[in-house]
Amino acid sequence: MAAKRMNSKKRYELLTRNMGWETTYQSMDEVFPYDKFEGIKIKDWDKWEDPFRLTVDAYWKFQAEKDKKLYAIIDSFAQNNGQMNISDARYVNALKLFIQGVTPLEYYAHRHYAHLGRHFRGEGTRVACQMQSIDELRHAQTQIHTLSHYNKYFDGLHDPFHMFDRVWYLSVPKSYFEDAMTAGPFEFITSVSFSFEYILTNLLFVPFMSGAAYNGDQATVTFGFSAQSDESRHMTLGLEVIKFMVEQHEDNLPIVQGWIDKHFWRAYRVLALVSAMQDYMLPNSPMSWKEAWDVYFVENIGALFDDLSRYGLRMPKYHEVATAESEHLSHQVWLTLYNYSHAAGMQTWVPDDKKLDWLSEKYPNTFDKHYRPRFEMFRQMEADGQRHFSPGLPQLCQVCQVPMAFTEVVAGDAMKISRRVSTYKEDRFYTCSDGCRDVFEGNPAKYAQAWLPVHQIFQGNCGGAELADVAKWCHLQPGDGGEHVGSPDQDRWKKWRGEDTVKPTVMAAE
User: What's the rounded mean pLDDT across residues 475-497?
Assistant: First the structure.
């Protein structure tokens, strides 16, 4: 008789149950040294459940179908000179930020989920981490393959992984992920799978991919859709691990809540860069940062924590601060990038009238009052041949490593720089907010060691004392950053369009 066909639940159980064993010649704690020292207590690893019940053969089939479609579209995009169909050359700077700051994080995630797949002692948990490790490697590869087409025609895309290790604004995402990777396995999975993947990933992928569609970039839209089904599974993993930990033992609850508080704030500060991309780098923006925040965090995550409250979990600490900052965040970050883009791998510019009007419409309570006058001043300075780049180096937050540009919006003073001071071993350390101060003071021995780009430049560890020396050390080339107007990117774009070019202003690394 033919063997009875097994359903997906049975196939998943055979893959993830009873495949491990109790060791004898070495203790289990020596074989799995990392999953107890954080204080998390697990009574029964078999209580772990993956709602997707994904098996290896199903996974390969599913991903192969997606890759077949993705690479067909990438090939068509390249053959038909798809770069000619985007809205404007300014849009490519969003891609520069993405491949410099996000794609390396995908590879970091691949590496560390593989680590977790070895060091969790529950078979189901190990399989889930291994599957996600493969997902993350695939995401890095498809993003590199997709965006490599733009590297043929635009500057700033030539060496993103080297830039990720050295360029100042990329220390923001790098420090966040390395913070998680140097923690224990349960804290890492809370940080990345829950605080980032579940709570905040929609603020990255959904607006970005919608923005790509609005700006004619079908190749990027396709890799976004190809990854989004994986992201749904990752979000489910994040939610499952939180429920699993708090259901296993009551002592786990305060530990998990502390991690959620910490890594929500850390991940939110990383998304400050995304807010500027959403509001300023996209010539055609599908929604503002504030609109995205209201939908994907205030409404969706508010509903999530209403559900999680039965486990004793509450909303992340300082979530109300993040919501108040949504009126200001993108403008403050863009103004910072505008001042320092001569030392960056992407370009900045004063928004045109269409964008200024759009920002006034989307931020009626704040933009015209606080930010539009500054952009009008910068525009006049440019017209007078005095385009401003800051000649100094900014003070960085010791934790999130963003320049100290955020303001006291909760206290009602949107023009006062927010600064907190902590003391550790008789040294003073500065942070940008109550959230970052709490993170620092929770483990000052760790964050006192932070590799801060500005400090390293002053110490002579970044190639030399001059801007050109630092740019060379970062592998930045003339044209990668600086002012967009008059840049090689804009010049090529105008030639493609048969338009007059503009005499270039001061460019990065010159």
Answer: 95
